[in-house]
Write a structure and sequence with these properties.
heterodimer; A: about 0% strand; B: 7-stranded mixed β-sheet; transmembrane helix (chain A); Cytochrome oxidase maturation protein (chain A); Cyt_oxidase_maturation_cbb3 (chain A); transmembrane (chain A); membrane (chain A)
C-alpha cells in the first residue's frame, strides 16, 4: 500500500494540470467562438504567398 | 456642403501603435464566409489582425495607426457582399460575458473536483464491503475534503451569493435550499471524518454543484447569445446623423457620438435618429413609429421631433435635446416606470416551486431528526440521518428542470426568428390567452408598398420607378423599389412639394401630386382608402394613379386565423385614425378594435382585461406602445420597432412575416409543458428517495447514483423541446 504515496499525489497533479490547462484556455479566449473554431479546424490553410505578415 | 464619415467613436487604441475596431457583420454563416472575409481584410496594407467570430457574427480588426480610415473596411466588406457596421459593446453585454466566463470557470473547478473526489470515493465504496483498513478510509476521506472544500467554496459562489441576496431581502429562492444542503453536507462530512465514521458525502456535495452549474451556465449562455444578436442588429441599423461640425460642414457620425446641444441636418426621406427641436426649415414628418398615427404632421421652427420620425418633404435643422426634455417622452417614461414595477412582481416557476419546496424539505429533515431521537436513537445518529435527507432531496434535478428546457426552447425559437429579451418570457408567453395587436408597423409592414402595381402596364411602371429614383420623398422611394428601378433618368428635376419631371424623347414625364400631373379627375375612387398616399404619373397625355400605403404583413390573415384556432382572443388597439384601423380590422376579420387610443388608454384596457383574469400578450412597435408592452403579462415587438419598445418587449421577432408570433406561442407552450413535467419528475424522484433517506439506510453511493440518475433523466426530457415550432400556421 506504500504505492499510494506516489499514486495519490500523481493523480492529483495530473488532475490539477488538467484544471490549469482548462483555466488557461478559458483565459486565452478559446471558448469565445465555438462555432468558428469547429470550422477553422477543417478550413484550408492560406497559400503562403497570399498571406500577409501577421502578428 | 462636404460630407465625411466619422467612425473615430468606435476606434480603440490597442497599444504598440495599433488601432482596434469591432464590426458587426450580416450574413456570415459558414467557414467559406469566414475565410473570405479574413483574407479580404488582411489584404489591405497595414492590417495586422482580421479575425471573424462566427458565434457572435463579428469581426475584430487591428491595424497600424496612421492613414488607414476604418470606413475602408466597411467598403471592402461591402465589395465582398457583406453588410457591416462598427459596433460598440453595451455595458449589459459586457456584464453577461463576464458572468458567463465566471460560471464556466466555476464549472471547470467543480468538474475537476468531482472527478478527483469520485476517484477517491470508489475505493472507499468498494472497500466498505471488502477489506479496507479504517486508517486508509480516513486517509481517503481527508484527501477528498482537501479537494472538495476549497473547490466548493469557489464553485459554490454563484449559489451562495444569490441565496444570501434572497435571505437579506427576506425572501427565498432555489439557491437557499441548495446552499444549505451543500454547506450541511460538507460540514457533516468533516465532522464524520474527524470521528473516523464510515460515510462522508464530499462526492455528493461537489457533484451536486457541478450539475447545477451546468444548468446555470446553459441559462447564462443563452442570455449572452441573445444579447449579442440584439447588439448586432442594433449596430447594423447603422444609425447615423448628419452633424454640423462647422457652419457649412457636415460629418456623418454614429448616433452614439452625438451630444445634447449638437445641431444635425435631417434631409427628406431620412429617419431621425435623435430627439430634438427644429430650429430651421419646414417639412412634413411621419410620426407613425412614435404615435401610431399615419397622417403626416407639419414640422417647423420649434416643433419637437423624436427618434424614429421620418422626414418627408423638406430639410430640417434639429437641435438635439436630452431625452427627458420632451413632453411626450416624459409622459411615456412615467407610464413605463409604473408598468415595469408592476411586472417585476411576477414570480418565476422555479421560484414558486422553491417556495413550496424549501419549507417541506427542511421540515421533513427536522421531523426525521426528532423522530429518530424519540425512537431512541442517539442525537448524533439522528442528525446524520437528517442531513442525509437534506442531501438526497437537494434540488439537483429541480435546478436543472427549467434552465435546460429554456435553453433548448430558446434555440428552437431562435431558428423561427424570435429572440428572447427576458429570461422568464417563455413561462409568461405560454400562459397568454389574449393578444392585443398594435396596427401600424405590427400588423402592417413598416415600409410603404404600391398597392395597385398590377393594374399598371409594366413599361409605364418601370418608367415611373426610374423617375422616382430622383426624389428623396419616401413615397417615391417606395415606387422606385416596387418597380425594381436601377438607373435614374439623368435629366430629372425635382420640384419641392410637387413632384419630379423629366423629358425623354420629347415626351414629358411627371410623377408627384395628382395636380402636378393634371390627373385630379382620376383620383376619385382611389382616395377612398384612408391610409393610402396617392401619387400620379403622367407620360405625355397618358395619366395613371398609384396608391401607396403600408401593406399588411403577408401572412397576417393566416396568423390571425391560427391564433383563433388556438382559442386566443384577439383585438387591435391603435393610435391611428378610425377609418384606417377599421379597414385593417375588417381585412383581417378581427371584430374587436379601438382607434385613436393614447398610451394611457392602452394601459387602462390591459388592466381591465387583467381584472377579468386574461393573460395579455401585447404585440406592438411604436414608442407609444412601450408602456403597454411593459404593462401586459408578456410582450413582443418586431425588430423594426422604436428603441424604447424593443428594449421593453420580452421577445423580439425578425423579418417580414407575423408567423413568429404563433411559433413563439407554440414553442413556449410546449416548453412550459416540459418544465412542469421535469418538475414532476424531480418531485417523483424525491418521493421515492425520501423514505429511503428517512429510514437511515442511505449510503453516499446511493445518494450519488440517485442524484446523477435524476439529473440525466431531466436533461434528456428537456431535449424533447427541440422539435417545437415545426408547423407554424
Amino acid at each position: 500500500m506504500e504505492i499510494l504515496v506516489i499514486l495519490v499525489p500523481l493523480a492529483l497533479m495530473l488532475g490539477g494540470a488538467g484544471l490549469v490547462a482548462f483555466l488557461w484556455s478559458l483565459r486565452s479566449g478559446q471558448y469565445d467562438d465555438l462555432d468558428g473554431a469547429a470550422w477553422r479546424a477543417i478550413a484550408d490553410d492560406e497559400p503562403p504567398q497570399e498571406a500577409p505578415a501577421k502578428r | 456642403m462636404q460630407v465625411t464619415r466619422d467612425f473615430s467613436h468606435y476606434v480603440r487604441d490597442a497599444g504598440e501603435g495599433l488601432r482596434h475596431i469591432d464590426l458587426a457583420v450580416e450574413g456570415v454563416h459558414c467557414a467559406g464566409c469566414m475565410a473570405k472575409i479574413e483574407r479580404g481584410l488582411s489584404a489591405i496594407p497595414d492590417v495586422t489582425l482580421a479575425r471573424v467570430n462566427l458565434t457572435d457574427r463579428r469581426v475584430a480588426l487591428e491595424w497600424k495607426a496612421g492613414t488607414l480610415d476604418p470606413g475602408r473596411f466597411i467598403d471592402r466588406l461591402e465589395e465582398l457582399g457583406y453588410k457591416a457596421y462598427p459596433f460598440e459593446t453595451e455595458s449589459a453585454e459586457v456584464a453577461e460575458v463576464a458572468e458567463s466566463r465566471f460560471l464556466l470557470r466555476c464549472l471547470g473547478v467543480a468538474a475537476f473536483a468531482t472527478m478527483n473526489v469520485m476517484m477517491l470515493s470508489i475505493p472507499v465504496w468498494s472497500g466498505n464491503v471488502s477489506d479496507m483498513l479504517p486508517e486508509q478510509r480516513d486517509f481517503f476521506h481527508w484527501l477528498s475534503a482537501l479537494i472538495a472544500l476549497p473547490a466548493a467554496a469557489y464553485a459554490g459562489q454563484p449559489f451562495f451569493r444569490s441565496a444570501w441576496r434572497a435571505l437579506s431581502a427576506k425572501t427565498t429562492n432555489m439557491d437557499v435550499p441548495i446552499s444549505i444542503g451543500v454547506i450541511l453536507a460538507l460540514g457533516m462530512s468533516v465532522v464524520e471524518t474527524i470521528h473516523h465514521a464510515e460515510h462522508a458525502y464530499f462526492d455528493a456535495a461537489i457533484m451536486l454543484l457541478t450539475f447545477l452549474l451546468v444548468g446555470r451556465f446553459l441559462d447564462q449562455n443563452m442570455r449572452r447569445r441573445t444579447r449579442a444578436v440584439a447588439g448586432n442588429l442594433a449596430a447594423l441599423k447603422a444609425e447615423t446623423a448628419a452633424k454640423f461640425i462647422g457652419p457649412d460642414e457636415i460629418s456623418q457620425v454614429p448616433v452614439a457620438a452625438i451630444n445634447p446641444g449638437d445641431i444635425v441636418l435631417l434631409r427628406p426621406g431620412e429617419r431621425c435618429a435623435v430627439d430634438g427641436t427644429v430650429i430651421e426649415g419646414r417639412s412634413e414628418i411621419d410620426q407613425s413609429l412614435i404615435t401610431g398615427e399615419t397622417l403626416y404632421v407639419t414640422a417647423e421652427q420649434g416643433t419637437p421631433v423624436y427618434a424614429g420620425s421620418m422626414n418627408i418633404s423638406g430639410s430640417l435643422r434639429v437641435r438635439v435635446s436630452a431625452a427627458s426634455e420632451a413632453t411626450l417622452l416624459a409622459e411615456i417614461t412615467r407610464l413605463l416606470d409604473n408598468a415595469l414595477q408592476a411586472r417585476s412582481r411576477y414570480m418565476r416557476l422555479a421560484d414558486r416551486a422553491s417556495r413550496l419546496y424549501a419549507p417541506v424539505v427542511h421540515a421533513t429533515a427536522l421531523l426525521t431528526i426528532l423522530g429518530w431521537v424519540l425512537a431512541g436513537a442517539s442525537w448524533h445518529d439522528a442528525i446524520v440521518t437528517g442531513v442525509a435527507v437534506l442531501i438526497i432531496t437537494c434540488p439537483c434535478a429541480l435546478g436543472l428542470a427549467i434552465p435546460t428546457v429554456q435553453t433548448v426552447a430558446s434555440g428552437a425559437m431562435f431558428k423561427a426568428g424570435v429572440l428572447l429579451n427576458a429570461g422568464d418570457a417563455i413561462e409568461r408567453l405560454a400562459e397568454a390567452d389574449h393578444v392585443i395587436f398594435d396596427k401600424t408597423g405590427t400588423l402592417t409592414l413598416p415600409e410603404l408598398e404600391v398597392m395597385n402595381a398590377a393594374a399598371i402596364p409594366a413599361d409605364i411602371f418601370e418608367l415611373a420607378g426610374r423617375l422616382a429614383l430622383s426624389s428623396h420623398h419616401p413615397v417615391a422611394a417606395a415606387v422606385a423599389q416596387a418597380a425594381g428601378a436601377k438607373s435614374p433618368i439623368l435629366s430629372a428635376v425635382e420640384e419641392a412639394g410637387q413632384g419630379v419631371r423629366a423629358t425623354i424623347d420629347g415626351i414629358e414625364l411627371r410623377l408627384g401630386r395628382p395636380s402636378f400631373c393634371g390627373a385630379e379627375t382620376l383620383v376619385g375612387s382611389a382616395a377612398l382608402d384612408p391610409e393610402a398616399s396617392i401619387v400620379a404619373f403622367s407620360k405625355g397625355s397618358d395619366k395613371f394613379i398609384l396608391s401607396v400605403r403600408q401593406g399588411l404583413r403577408p401572412d397576417a390573415k393566416a396568423v390571425i386565423a391560427a391564433l383563433k384556432a388556438r382559442n386566443i382572443g384577439i383585438e387591435i388597439l391603435s393610435g391611428d385614425r378610425e377609418p384606417a384601423v377599421k379597414a385593417a380590422a375588417h381585412a383581417l376579420d378581427i371584430p374587436e378594435w379601438r382607434a385613436g387610443v393614447t398610451p394611457a388608454d392602452k394601459i387602462v384596457r390591459i388592466e381591465e382585461l387583467k381584472r377579468r383574469g386574461a393573460k395579455v400578450l401585447m404585440v406592438g412597435d411604436g414608442m407609444n406602445d412601450a408602456p403597454s408592452l411593459a404593462a401586459a403579462h408578456v410582450s413582443m415587438s418586431p425588430i423594426s420597432a422604436a428603441h424604447l419598445s424593443q428594449a421593453t418587449a420580452d421577445l423580439v421577432f425578425l423579418g417580414r412575416p407575423l408567423a413568429p408570433v404563433v411559433a413563439a406561442i407554440d414553442a413556449s407552450r410546449k416548453a412550459l409543458h416540459l418544465m412542469r413535467q421535469n418538475l414532476w419528475l424531480a418531485i417523483g424522484y424525491n418521493v421515492l428517495a425520501v423514505p429511503v433517506a428517512i429510514s437511515g439506510v442511505v449510503t453516499p453511493l446511493i445518494a450519488a447514483a440517485a442524484m446523477s440518475g435524476s439529473s440525466i433523466l431531466v436533461m434528456l426530457n428537456s431535449l424533447r423541446a427541440r422539435g417545437a415550432s415545426r408547423e407554424i400556421v
